[in-house]
Design brief:
Residues 347-366 are annotated as: Disordered. This protein is 1% helix and 44% strand. It has one helix spanning 192-195, and strands at 8-9, 29-31, 39-46, 51-52, 55-60, 70-71, 85-86, 96-97, 103-109, 122-128, 133-138, 148-153, 158-163, 174-178, 185-188, 200-203, 206-211, 216-222, 225-233, 239-245, 256-261, 265-271, 276-282, 288-296, 299-306, 313-319, 333-337, 342-349, 364-365. The protein has a five-stranded mixed β-sheet with strand order 2-24-25-26-27, with no helix packed on it. A four-stranded antiparallel β-sheet has the order 6-5-3-28, with no helix packed on it. A four-stranded antiparallel β-sheet has the order 8-9-10-11, with no helix packed on it. A hairpin with a 2-residue loop joins β18 (216-222) and β19 (225-233).
Length: 366
């Protein structure tokens, strides 16, 4: 495998509340009240085989409107590129909140709606709490001819991007690029799993991403080294989304993982600070295609996108079990239903939630 050490990056605490309209997603935020206080962001598209525009929709965990929708640009404007994704693929459009809580990011194609995406650069969209969109960052030939799937940032200045990087050179499924760049640097590649990756998140001072290719599992990238804390073996399906939470004060850092395996279920894992142990699955989640969540008292509240096609739904369940116990999930609640011809693709929690992402960390090298 190929990996690269690229210097030190201080990840600021995300505890500060960002002024303005809250739109950004959180991985592992700590909730202080019920679902109505959760500020959610959804990416949605028209279901079509062509490149299509992306809208970011804001709503609360109770399903009420939470601000004006944000339309990502579809034409060139100054340094900003058009931003589209494949309208008929549930594997794109994932959202990630920045470690400092100020941005949401997603990856797509620098192509106008209805045009070919095969040979155009892949692009990162960065959206701030006021709804300002930056699409000035492209990745050269990385992920060309294939899907680009996820992007995350610590502070809006540098991005880590995942996708199918096995076809076009330079091969690699984890690419780093700075804001406004026209190319990126491959950080991980060389095997089937590391060349073809899914969504990506920052949590507990590390970069995490999944792959369904052998050896399938959840990967961690810290200080230039790739490890696989959760191995899924050669059978079954790989992770397409996940959320890491800090639920137990006795365990340093993130200690609970909800891992969505494609066409399978949400699997719950707990950590003792060293090893991850599977605790069971949450029923009724086999059709989910997106996932985020918050700590809710002694449990965890999860939001999932149910279904891949037009008219799919955003649903919510609560796991009331201890972090290291098998899940005990509530009946699911439908939060929102996509309109006809439209599908939800990514879900995340907004930085207006007055709680930190999980957890604030010391400076770490990525």
């Amino acid at each position: 495998m190929l990996f690269q050490h690229t210097g030190r990056l201080a990840i600021a605490s995300a505890a500060a509340v960002v002024a303005g309209t809250a739109i950004v997603a959180a991985t592992g935020a700590r909730a202080t009240t019920g679902a109505a206080a959760d500020h959610l962001l959804l990416s949605r598209v028209t279901v079509t085989a062509e490149a299509t525009a992306v809208t970011l929709t804001r709503l609360t965990g109770a399903g009420t409107g939470d601000g004006t929708a944000i339309e990502l640009p579809v034409t060139v404007s100054g340094v900003d590129k058009p931003f589209t994704i494949e309208g008929d693929s549930a594997g794109v459009g994932a959202l990630a909140r920045s470690a400092d809580g100020r941005y949401v990011t997603l990856a797509g194609y620098a192509a106008e709606p209805g045009t070919a995406t095969t040979s155009v650069p892949r692009v990162v969209a960065r959206v701030d709490a006021a709804g300002a969109v930056d699409t000035s960052t492209t990745l050269g030939t990385s992920f060309m001819q294939e899907e680009v799937r996820g992007a995350v940032t610590a502070d809006g200045a540098r991005f880590w991007v995942t996708g199918h990087g096995a076809t076009a050179a330079p091969n690699g499924g984890l690419v780093q690029a700075t804001l406004g760049a026209s190319s990126g640097t491959v950080l991980a590649g060389g095997t089937g799993a590391l060349n073809d990756t899914r969504t990506v998140q920052l949590a507990g001072g590390s970069l995490w991403f999944g792959s369904e290719k052998e050896p399938a599992g959840l990967y961690e990238y810290t200080a230039g080294v790739v490890t696989q804390p959760v191995a899924l073996g050669s059978g079954g399906s790989g992770p397409i989304a996940f959320v890491l939470l800090d639920r137990d004060a006795a365990v340093a850092g993130v200690d609970t993982l909800y891992l969505l395996r494609e066409a399978d279920a949400v699997h719950k894992y707990s950590s003792d600070g060293t090893n991850w142990t599977e605790r069971g699955t949450i029923s009724g989640t086999s059709a989910w295609t997106g996932l985020t969540g918050v700590v809710d008292g002694t449990g965890a509240r999860l939001y999932g996108i149910d279904g891949a096609g037009a008219g799919n739904t955003l649903v919510q369940v609560t796991d009331s079990a201890e972090f290291s116990s098998p899940p005990s999930a509530s009946a699911r609640t439908t939060v929102a239903t996509a309109p006809g011809g439209v599908a939800f693709r990514g879900v995340a929690l907004a930085p207006g939630d007055p709680s930190p992402s999980s957890p604030a960390s010391a400076p770490v090298s990525y």
